[in-house]
């Protein structure tokens, strides 16, 4: 009889321990998975600017023309919060589909179509790479 009570108590303890709270989803971990997917879409980190009728993504080694579509407009809406002037470039991390432009078109050699917005960051206020013209 004592063994039966002992088994029941041990079973209750084991089942009670399994009701742990679930941890929150780690967004950084999910973003890291995004870098590793092999679906023809690449992840780029660079500075984004949209001014007038042109959008540009500048990475450390390349400059890309950005296809103006709904995803680009969503990115521009998120970037506006960090701009002090219309021509400010804002650091972003995005997943894009990269294509080469037609030979008869003007612009940069490659264009990118934004598929997913991963991160929008505030520009570094200490950055001294801005040139302003005075009157």
Task: Please describe what this structure looks like.
With 135 residues, the protein is of the alpha+beta class. It has a domain at 40-122: Beta Barrel (OB fold (Dihydrolipoamide Acetyltransferase, E2P)), CATH 2.40.50. Helix content is 27%, strand content 30%. It has three helices and five strands; from the N terminus they run H-H-E-E-E-H-E-E. The protein has helices at 2-17, 27-36, 70-79, and strands spanning 42-51, 54-58, 63-66, 90-100, 110-120. Strands 1-2-3-5-4 form a five-stranded mixed beta barrel. It is elongated and about 90 Å long. It starts with a helix and ends in a 15-residue tail after the last strand. The model has no long low-confidence stretch (mean pLDDT 79).
For the structure shown, list the relevant keywords.
single chain, 135 residues, alpha+beta, OB fold (Dihydrolipoamide Acetyltransferase, E2P), five-stranded mixed beta barrel, 27% helix, elongated
Could you give a quick summary of the protein structure above?
With 135 residues, the protein is of the alpha+beta class. Helices cover 27% and strands 30% of the residues.
Give the overall shape, derived from the CA principal axes. Answer: elongated
Biggest sheet: strands side by side, in what order? 1-2-3-5-4
Mean pLDDT: 79
Alpha-beta content class: alpha+beta
**What is the CATH T-level topology of the domain at 40-122?**
OB fold (Dihydrolipoamide Acetyltransferase, E2P)
Largest sheet: 5 strands, mixed, barrel
Task: Write down the Rg.
Answer: 25 Å
CATH superfamily of the domain at 40-122: Nucleic acid-binding proteins
Helical segment count? 3
CATH class of the domain at 40-122: Mainly Beta
First CA to last CA: what distance? 96 Å
CATH architecture classification of the domain at 40-122: Beta Barrel
């Amino acid at each position: 009889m004592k063994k039966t009570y002992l088994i029941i108590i041990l079973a209750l303890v084991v089942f009670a321990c399994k009701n742990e709270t679930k941890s929150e989803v780690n967004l950084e971990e999910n973003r890291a998975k995004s870098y590793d997917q092999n679906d023809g879409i690449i992840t780029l980190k660079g500075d984004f600017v949209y001014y007038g009728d042109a959008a540009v993504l500048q990475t450390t080694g390349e400059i890309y023309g950005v296809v103006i579509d709904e995803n680009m407009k969503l990115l521009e809406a998120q970037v506006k919060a960090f701009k002090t002037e219309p021509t400010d470039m804002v650091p972003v991390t995005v997943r894009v589909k990269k294509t080469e432009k037609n030979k008869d078109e003007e612009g940069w050699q490659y264009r990118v179509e934004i598929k997913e917005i991963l991160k929008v960051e505030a520009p570094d206020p200490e950055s001294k790479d801005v040139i302003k013209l005075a009157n």
